[in-house]
Amino acid sequence: MTVPARSGSLGLGYGSKLSGDAVFSRITRFFALVVIVGLGAMALEMAAASAPTLRAFGFDFVLGRVWDPLHRVFGALPFIYGTLVSSLLALVIAVPVSFGVAIYLSELAASWQRDLLGFLVELLAAVPSVVYGLWGVFALAPWLRTSVEPALAKSFGFLPLFQGTTHGFGMLAGGVVLSIMILPTISSVSREVLRSVPSSLREGALALGATRSEMVRLAVLPYARSGLLGAVLLGLGRALGETMAITMVIGNRPDISASLFAPSYTMASVIANEFTEATGELHLAALAEIGLLLFVLTIALNIAARLLVGRVGRVALGGRL
Amino acid sequence: MKDRFFVRLFVDRALRAACLLATVLALVPLASVLWFVIVRGAHGLSLTFFTGLPKPVGEPGGGMAHAIVGSLEIVGLACAMGIPAGVLAGIHLSDSEDTRFARFVRFSADVMAGVPSIAVGLFVYVLVVRRMQSFSALAGAMALAVLMLPTITRATEELLRLVPESLREAALGLGVPKWRATVRVMLRTAAPGIATGIMLAVARAMGESAPLLFTSFNNRGFASSPAEPTASLPVNIYTYAVSPYADWHEQAWAAALVLVTLVLCLNIAARWLVRGRLP
After folding, report:
1. Is the pTM of this model over 0.80?
2. pLDDT level of residue A280 (50, 70, 90 thresholds)
3. Residue B127 domain-assigned (yes or no)
4. How far apart are CA B188 and CA B62, in angstroms?
5. Alpha carbons A295 and A278: distance in angstroms, whole number
6. Which of A33, A134, A220 is the best substitution to test chain B (most B C-beta atoms within 10 A)?
7. How many domains does chain B fold into?
8. Domain A76-312 falls in which CATH fold?
9. Selection from A16-25, A295-304, B55-64 with the highest mean pLDDT
């Protein structure tokens, strides 16, 4: 390979096997391959690491309610329950607000508001997870304990959701923190989806005498529906995998309780808490299997979300998420 | 007829107000978080915070110099691994026509971007830490690089695609080799945008704690080499926040202030680079 790079410029490459172009394209191709190999290796390594529990417990792992590392009994149901319920709670809170933000920013706001508010909403995504956790521990949880939870118990205490002692730390705190963290994801993807709706639809609706909100409801939203669902799924995927903030506020107790005030535990939290202190090979494998479940779940959600968003048209998500 | 008109007008106003309210509501947590971080963080901030090492457990005082240095070291190493790989992979995606390989790479990058960071930490633990028999800054950096890779790849690709093809043709017409046209003309034109993508990815990586818990772990002092367990700001914020000591809580807030300042500066600088140039 003693060829001067110039040789490629004439497209002749006198007597050489590899021109500069060929070398360069091989290098870039190699790193493109790294992306695929990285993802594949992730799946394989985690499957291999969780092999012992896959063999020992099989499907019971997912249904077992007892998690007792001392007696080597591993059932992941409480964690799966905690992850799903906290994520759904986060969606219940975040989706209406995010859609409101997206509609306001893409359809209603003046352009200077659009830039400023859009920037601020995206800053929400920039705050590190552990800082939300810190805020959750010292600001949110005390507020929930002294103000919000007693009020909920007073007004809606007849529902099992709002019964029991109020700790501040628990499912409700976890759901609220998660909702704050997924809000920027859902709103910025929704905003991109709304922006890709052809403006002829809007103009048509307005020309027929629709008000702004009727235009949004009758012309924009129906067209964007699948993309908006995709945005929600992307938010859900983020909520399922979120670790630090929720670990700090959810209470970390592997119980299945109907009350939102009760402490709970999520899949990501148990990995974060127990992994470095895992006792024995089986415990490690059990945690790795939880990681594998999380990995598979979030990947499936992501693929579904991207297919749905892609149906609306070319929406640029790549660099952002 | 007229009544109906006013009803519609009223509904329109109400729905618009609801959307505005949602936007304001979304910003309340941001304001609250920043308020708490600034007020409580400023209280714990001092010169020793930046220069000192932690005192023995239970003794007040001390600082987080080791965590600041450790964080910068881990993120720096992650950049060294993640940025070149991401940019080169992105170049491949924008250069190659829509081959099956390119589509698959694009798909993998998108999927990878959605993998939870804790799962990436697990992966690197199994791949690196278990084999090296030690937590290390290198393993932490690798986890962060994996998190940065898809973002940088896709950002590079999207931004290279925005550069007019005529620029490349002009360069090729002057007899420049194709790869030099890519690097010197296309990449340079897209550079501010790509830098923005990279800075956003770095800012995100800097705040990550979950993947560092069992890759770079923690350290009560400076690590003497990248092959040793290394302290980082996010992991220290976590351990200090869940500890029972009031003094540690104060230091956690101070560390959060430092971290948030770093991350927000990166974010604002990233956007400033492309002000008015991107849609």
Report:
1. yes
2. confident
3. yes
4. 46
5. 20
6. A134
7. 2
8. MetI-like fold (1.10.3720)
9. A295-304
Render pLDDT for A161-218 as a digit per residue (tens, 0 to 9): 998 888 899 999 999 999 999 999 999 999 999 999 999 999 999 999 999 999 999 9
Which residues of chain B have a CB within 8 Å of the CB of A240? 116
The dihedral over CA atoms of B123, B125, B129, B134, expressed in degrees to the nearest 10, equals: 170
CB contact under 8 A, B264 and A126: yes
CATH number of the CATH domain containing B147: 1.10.3720.10
CB-nearest partner of A28 from B91, B217, B256 = B91
Q: Does A45 touch chain B (CB under 8 A)?
A: yes
Q: How far apart are CA A214 and CA A205, in angstroms?
A: 8
Q: What is the C-alpha separation between A227 and A233, in angstroms, rounded?
A: 10
Q: Do A121 and B111 touch (CB under 8 A)?
A: no
Q: Which residues of B touch A98 (CB under 8 A)?
A: 22, 26
Q: Which of B36, B92, B267 to mutate to test the interface with A (most CBs of A within 10 A)?
A: B92
The pLDDT value given to residue A4: 47
Q: How far apart are the first and last CA of chain B?
A: 43
> B27 CA to chain A: closest CA distance, Å?
7
Q: What does the pLDDT look like over B229-251, one tens digit per residue? A: 999 999 999 999 999 999 999 99
Residues of A numbered 55-94 whose beta carbons fall under 8 angstroms of chain B's beta carbons: which are they?
Answer: none
- C-alpha span between A8 and A6 (Å, rounded): 5
User: Chain-wide mean pLDDT for chain A?
Assistant: 90
Same domain, B169 and B63: yes
Domain that holds residue B177: 49-273
- Which pLDDT score, from 0 to 100, does residue B228 have? 93
Query: pLDDT band at residue B271, thresholds of 50, 70 and 90?
Result: confident
Are A62 and A297 within 8 A, CB to CB?
no
Is residue B278 situated within a structural domain?
no
